[in-house]
């Protein structure tokens, strides 16, 4: 099986400026993901998808040549991950005559995800599944959610479930923005990075930080230090 790692690293983030290349314990943020992908030993190609020559220069410093740049129209806020993945797969096929059986979408802003997470999730990509996505549990029972009505009073979002004891509520999870394995065939047929037959790969909260804000960054640094110290 030929496997491709796709690591989207565009510039121009708004909430946390240049988050993908911020220094994170001595290395640019996305390099932690690059190193985890390489360490897993699962990939025939590790591709950083970027429109930025600055990112390319960083990759060169870490001995990871970028075969091609992302099209500029795929580097704005409205570009979807589906379109980015399709562009990468199409370019490898049309320009280099290289095809892949599977690809793994690895978010650059999840530096706490480890190479073991990549290999353990890959083991779940069995014959009957088309994908595996990393997930985490919600901090609070999701079926206790409420919303404010126009009159200013609260109303349960899930009224049929709201009054159940939490231990009787169904177990639910959420994509944690760390990784997703996808069979290339299923992606071609369905056009989404989480196809219908996708299994969950559960990750602990201390490795499930997807950095979007300064608060996320502070929390990721806290957990990184605790993980390094082995606490």
How would you describe the overall organization of this protein?
The chain is α/β, with parallel strands linked by helices and 231 residues long. The chain has one domain: Spore Coat Polysaccharide Biosynthesis Protein SpsA, Chain A (Alpha-Beta Complex), CATH 3.90.550. The protein contains 6 helices and 10 strands. Strands 4-1-5-9-6-10 form a 6-stranded mixed β-sheet, with helices on both faces. A two-stranded antiparallel sheet has the order 2-3. A hairpin with a 5-residue loop joins β7 (146-148) and β8. The longest helix has 16 residues, at 81-96. The two termini are 37 Å apart. The model has no long low-confidence stretch (mean pLDDT 94).
Descriptive key words:
single chain, 231 residues, alpha/beta, Spore Coat Polysaccharide Biosynthesis Protein SpsA, Chain A, six-stranded mixed sheet, 21% strand, globular
Summarize the structure.
This protein is α/β, with parallel strands linked by helices. 29% of the residues lie in helices and 21% in strands. Helix 1 crosses helix 4 (115-122).
So what's the overall shape?
globular
Assess the beta-strand content as a share of residues. 15-25%
| Overall mean confidence score, pLDDT | 94
Q: Which class best fits the helix and strand makeup?
A: alpha/beta
Low-confidence stretches: none
How many strands?
10
Second CATH tier, the architecture? Alpha-Beta Complex
Largest sheet: 6 strands, mixed
CA radius of gyration: 19 Å
First-residue to last-residue Cα separation: 37 Å
The domain count comes to: 1
What is the third-level CATH name, the topology?
Answer: Spore Coat Polysaccharide Biosynthesis Protein SpsA, Chain A
Put simply, the count of helices is 6
Strand order, sheet with most strands: 4-1-5-9-6-10
CATH first level: which class? Alpha Beta
